[in-house]
Amino acid sequence: MIPVAILEILKSIVGKGWVLTDEADLAAYAFDGFCMEFTPDAVVLPQNTAEVSAILRIANREKINIVPRGAGTNLSGTSVARRGGMVMPLSRMDRILEIDGPNRCAVVQPGVVNADLQKALEPYGLMYGPDPSSWYVSTIGGNISLNAAGPRALKYGSSREHLLGLEVVKADGTVIKIGSKTSKNAAGYDLPHLFCGAEGTLGIITEATVRIIPLPEAERTIQAVYANLDDACATVSKIIAAGITPSAMDLLDQTLIDLIQGYGGVEFPEGATAFLLIETDGHPATVKDEVGKIVNICNAYNAIDIQVARTPEENEIIWRARRSIGGVFSKVCKTMINEDATVPVASLPAIMKTVLKLRDKHKLNVGIMAHAGDGNLHPAIMTDASNKEEMQRVDDFAEDLYRETLKLGGSLSGEHGIGLAKKQFVSMQFTNEALLMMRQIKELFDPNNILNPGGYIDETT
Q1: Cβ(141)–Cβ(111) under 8 Å?
Q2: Selecting from 3.90.1150.10, 3.30.70.2190, 3.10.20.30, 3.40.109.10, what CATH number does the domain 218-325 have?
Q3: Residue 368 in contact with residue 252, Cβ under 8 Å?
Q4: Which of 27, 179, 221, 413 would bridge 192 by S-S if both were Cys, CB 3.0 to 4.6 A apart?
Q5: How much is the pLDDT for 202?
Q6: Euclidean distance between CA atoms 366 and 253, whole angstroms
Q7: pTM (2 decimals)?
Q8: How many CB atoms lie under 10 A from the CB of residue 6?
Q9: CB-based contacts of 118: which residues, under 8 Å, 6+ apart?
Q10: Which parts of 287-405 are beta strand (E)?
């Protein structure tokens, strides 16, 4: 518990109404997208960097844990108080401070919602590249902390590729500014990217300078449906081998096709066992040429139905199938666990076949979503967290999945992070020496281990 005297000091910093201790308020911050419950001792909502700094000075002195939090949409259990203490939502720090068109960058506070930044950039003919599926609610600070990506990462990259600079508050309250507005920066250690993907364990981001890029002049979306999953995977490989870089290329398997069939008006032809959503953008002439090549490849690999959007409205209709999935899961299962295995693109067919074998081995209901163009696989396990026997099979499935992923030269995570979800598997990917180095970095920035403790960084195994 946090002493009453400390809570009063916190109230004097942020205002009485922004320190939450009532049971109902705390319950609202006890979960994130990973859905494991960790009730904090308090929730403190600062409005500016000075308040964050003051709070951290007190927390560091009193050795009170602090968990920075964006919108809580993450799927890895990184924004909950795993070892008690305070959750610090940064939702009040939601201002776009600058849109610098000539220098192609924007300066934002961490609580800016991704979709709001995109909307603000549109009148300038600009956009922000990363587009996680939760972009309409997830925040830039959270996206950076987890190095979030999304369907467009195939062409535009993840949060890391769009990060230029940061303002960060260290555990002792010290405010540091790192990076710059320049597109090239070879001065010193690359500190901004050290914080990108650090899951809030090294410091609290209070301002970010991000790269912005021109909106494409044209974009077209293609929906290709297959009777054979191997044909869909072969299409992905051929498109990449042909030198085409779509802005997005997502794949769904038969399990998910059957789930979303008819949902929100989505329809697939009889016999559909795999679905590819392919989007290409750029100069109108280039887009037209790429669409023709992609359609030819889809036909060559036995697509049974191909639809090409002709208008932005038709683009949206085709995307509806992909975006319907989240709503469908809530209707068909009590718990959905979304894994995040990533392999080299050429190994996508192998890892998808592995998922199907493991699904049968562990007797689970698993559908496959994939950002197919960059090898990022999201097996969706439809289960019930209250069923302990089934959850053991889910854990066994995940362990087998990541073991095979790493054998193929892959990674435990492409865009969700490690958090609680995969902390038990880190020794599969990292050597003891690598883990020790990460823990030494953590100790340098946060010697009292108050910043988001309870993850793999501060574990001994």
Answers
A1: yes
A2: 3.30.70.2190
A3: yes
A4: 179
A5: 97
A6: 10
A7: 0.94
A8: 18
A9: 127, 128, 131, 135
A10: 303-308, 335-338, 341-342, 365-371, 376-383
Name the one residue in this structure whose structure tokens are 């090239």.
184
CATH class of 4-89: alpha beta
pLDDT digits (tens, 9 = 90+) for 251-288: 999 999 999 888 767 789 999 999 999 999 999 999 99
C-alpha neighbours within 13 Å on the C-beta side of residue 205: 37
Q: In the CATH scheme, what is the code of domain 96-214?
A: 3.30.465.10
CA–CA gap between residue 94 and residue 92 (Å, rounded):
6
Distance CA 162, CA 158 (A): 7
Domain boundaries, the chain: 4-89, 96-214, 218-325, 333-423
Beta bridge partners of 127: 213
What's the alpha-carbon Rg for the chain, to the nearest Å? Answer: 22
CB 226 within 8 A of CB 275: yes
Share of the chain above pLDDT 90, in %: 88
160-193 pLDDT, tens digit each: 999 999 999 999 999 999 999 999 999 999 999 9
Q: Answer with the residue of higher pLDDT: 312 or 141.
A: 141
Mean pLDDT of 115-136: 95
Q: Where are the beta strands (DSSP E) in 198-261?
A: 204-211, 213-214, 218-226, 248-253
C-alpha to C-alpha distance for 79 and 88, rounded to whole angstroms: 9
Scan for tokens 């087998």, then name that residue. 400
Domain 96-214 identical in fold to domain 218-325 = no
